[in-house]
Amino acid sequence: MTIDLDDRLDRAADDLWVVVEARVVDTGATAPPVVRRSNVRLLVGVAATVTLLVALSAVLAWRDSTTDEAASPPTALVPSQETVAETESPGAGPVAHPGAGLVEVFEQEMEVALTSDLTCDQPYRSADSFDTMTLQLYSDRPGRRWLMRATFPDGSTYELVATGSIIYPETLSERGVWRGAAVGCEVAGGIEILGALIGEGSITALNRGPELADDEVGLYEGDVRSVATPAGEAQTAFGFVGERLSMTIAGFRTTGDGVEQALTQTMTWIVDDGVVVEHVVHDVTDGLGTVTVATSMRRYGTAQIGESAFDTSETTQLDPVARPAVDPFPPYSSPVVSVEPTVPSVGKTELAAPITKGAAGEEVIRLQARLQELGFDPGPIDGVFGAETQQAVWAYKKLVLGMPREELRNDDHATEVTPEMWLDMQEPIQIQPRRPQGTGVTHVEIYLPQQVLAVFADDAPVLVAHISSGDDREWCEEVSYDTDANGRPLDEPVVRDECGVSYTPGGVFTVSGRYEGTRQTPIGGTYNPVFFNYGIAVHGAANVPLYPASHGAIRINRALADIFPTLVDNGDRVYVWGQDGREPEEYSEAERLPLFNYRDPNSLADG
Amino acid sequence: MDAVLPSVEPVRVVESFDDFYRRERRGLVALAYGLTGNAAVAEDLAHEALTAAGRRWEHVGALEQPIGWVRRAVANRSTSFIRRRMVEGKALARLVSRTQSASSPSMPIESEHVWAAIRRLPRRQAQVVTLKALFRLSLQEIADELGMSKETAQTHLSRARAALTAVLDQEDIR
Predict the structure, then answer these.
(1) Local mean pLDDT, 10-residue blocks, chain B (174 residues)
(2) Within an 8 Å CB–CB cutoff, is residue A204 touching chain B?
(3) What's the pTM?
(4) Do the Cβ atoms of A1 and B173 come within 8 Å?
(5) Which residues are paired to A170 by β-bridges?
(6) Which DSSP category does B125 fall into?
């Protein structure tokens, strides 16, 4: 079959225009422009063991937009009367300003230098020069949140979120590239970042709003001094921790008749573990808006060279005047199951009687198809209610119906699908991630209390499975293994009498590796293991009972173990909700560690 | 005796940047959107290019085709955005998806496919075919905007069309 390319292109172009027209609303007053330029220099020094120097130059300018409404195309071209006046230093004379200013373009450029004399064994410094770490900022329009991505020369990347807003009543566009640097200590397998600063770069923001008086033209000059003590626990030492930061912005504005007014603004704020605990603004300006810079970051782990190991932290927009009583890390809450009011594509069917394992026929086919549609994997849709369909039903009951697994375990009819349940199952159910990641991302969520695992791609469920994890019990037995505690293969298998605790910790992890086939690990035999927390893996097992039975790993059935490794890539995130009901982010680094085995004290064998 | 001629100064007639901005912004966003596939990024890229033009409007505004200058800037920024994204891979893709607001508009999937295929073309081909599809420019106009000869533009266009036909054909079969 041959397509009509011109036709396809035309339609694609038309469709694109529809989107753009819906998005780019022509307000008639979005003219930008540039009249003046100024430099703002900021100096940031972080005392104690880390010293950071920032020089910031900013460009500020705007000009009139005398034409108000209705962007009627100009009927005549007029000679340009305004000239672009640029002053390279603040304090230059007033600039003739032709009229009302509704629109402002703000640009700033920053540079950063960073020095450190850290006391750790292996100090790490991103480099001496400016261009060592590139942070890219994207504004998150509604929340005014900046997402940053840091790239080091070695290819390692970090994602951060910070607020740092030039607050105007309405911001139309904001984007920038900053550079910065970081200091820290090299630790096993990575770098622990103890301080980082966003520095050199540029931001452009197009702002407009009533706060800009008609006759304003301004220049800023400012100093920022910050003193930080990056001491404290390593876990809370990322970013501006315990830092006192103050900023004075001095500037002037020029009225239409050339009169200058001096302006001063001083802000002080203290950041402690990502939370602004004190924030004072002395603002003697009334027309220029408020400049607020605040950073809050939370460290999630040790950065591995070559991969992104920091999660983004959550921040909220800070109120520039009132002392913020906000929690930059609001509690997460999102339902696992949502019921969307969608119209079912086919009419509902009914079951005459309950069906369970061993059943066969049309009804089982419909059940299997529906389970699959919801993201569960009932095995081949063959109309035979076998072990895989049984586990899919278990997972459904635990996750969607919220049946406690203990109850299910003691229920003789645990596998049964009743007519009522079948009707309910045909409702428009949608399984949603608790930690949505957006499109283009695959991630895994493991709910230990429910003993259910879910793989999401683009936040849609691709595999929801019944699992069996560690049961927190101590065990002692003869073990044989051919990988070490990190999942790396040993030269030859080892047999030992060992004890361990079957503990599956919660936390946020990334998939770190995998093997094909069967491996004997310190926590037992595994099939197609996909590791995410040292020796803890998601792996196939012949026995996946309705209770935690593993030595710490996540068991899924063998058929799923053929699929799971194809769904996730190394580096994909794994969120594990703990047995104790805690959120993944609530586990400390120490708590996330698996418990390693120890020699059986009663062993007679040589070790 | 020579007559003293009145001196004639050439008068440059320049459209005001405001008017230019208002009229052209939407088209520039469309261009960047087609080439990047991300509406939020497209707005930023269009804004950046316009800001750059505004800063030197004396110069840009006096060009015969100011819009050509800005479109070229947008096209180049867009394709380098894509290149950067390919290099940076997954991490940036994650970021980009987060920068898109929840209410991101979308277009029919068939058209999404067409644009996705265009974005996978070599950058010059992508630029040529996008300018043609969105603005129905002539080959000469495209060549002028992108700073290439008409023949080169023709070559890029033919190759782009051949590649797109092959790709989209295959998609239809699947």
Answers:
(1) 44 69 86 85 76 76 86 84 50 37 62 88 90 92 89 93 87 56
(2) yes
(3) 0.37
(4) yes
(5) A208
(6) H
